[in-house]
Amino acid sequence: NAGVTQTPKFRILKIGQSMTLQCAQDMNHNYMYWYRQDPGMGLKLIYYSVGAGITDKGEVPNGYNVSRSTTEDFPLRLELAAPSQTSVYFCASSYSWNTEAFFGQGTRLTVV
Amino acid sequence: GQQVMQIPQYQHVQEGEDFTTYCNSSTTLSNIQWYKQRPGGHPVFLIQLVKSGEVKKQKRLTFQFGEAKKNSSLHITATQTTDVGTYFCASNQAGTALIFGKGTTLSVSS
Predict the structure, then answer these.
(1) Which of A21, A63, B56, B86 could connect to A76 by a Cys-Cys bridge, CB 3.0–4.6 Å?
(2) Which residue does chain B place closest to A59, by CA atoms?
(3) B79 phi, psi to nearest 5 deg
(4) Other CB atoms closer than 10 Å to residue B102's CB: what's the count?
């Protein structure tokens, strides 16, 4: 099993550009999450999904959008990138709300 | 939603010393999970506690869940350089996402 796969690993965006961060899991997990991690600030929840077709906002959803059309995929869309979105983005998944979460390797995004 | 506060934010120890990080909440927690993130890496699950007063051990690591289920701790005995990283606690409720504390970054000098 590959676990949680995130692409790309690194990306530099210009202000105002858009992009999609891809996340796929092959563990048949119901729950999927997107976090961003800024230095010394821990992990902040952007969006999450408890199953295909269901998404909900987290702590810092502004500037992002998600969709969950399949169990496996949970892409994160950035529209009109801003320097404040420079961060490391982690996708994670878990079978249920009270089981361990598996993280992807992360995407390091820089907006200039 | 559930919020968890972690202290300290940073801790430096000499190899062989003990280390403890604390996780606190103002509300009763359904569970507490602990994760470790090595420098440049991604968070990796260590353990979950769900019962009041629960204590679990993994080799040199001891995890505790408070009697009131409002606090938790992770204690490392005789730290090693391999223990370096950031330790996060996280919690959630049924149907919601894991919310993480800000983490405690441990550095160890030999």
Answers:
(1) A21
(2) B99
(3) -55, 150
(4) 18
Out of B30, B48, B88, the one facing A100 most closely (by C-beta) is B48
Looking at beta carbons, which residues of chain B come within 8 Å of A98? 30-31, 48, 50, 92, 94
Q: CA quadruple A65, A66, A69, A73: dihedral positive or negative?
A: positive
Pairwise CA distance, residues B108 & B101, whole Å: 21
Measured CA to CA, the distance from residue B90 to residue A94 in angstroms comes to: 13
Quick one: A33 exposed, middle or buried, by C-beta within 10 A (0-12, 13-18, 19+)? Answer: buried
What are φ and ψ of residue A84, in 5° steps?
A: -65, -15
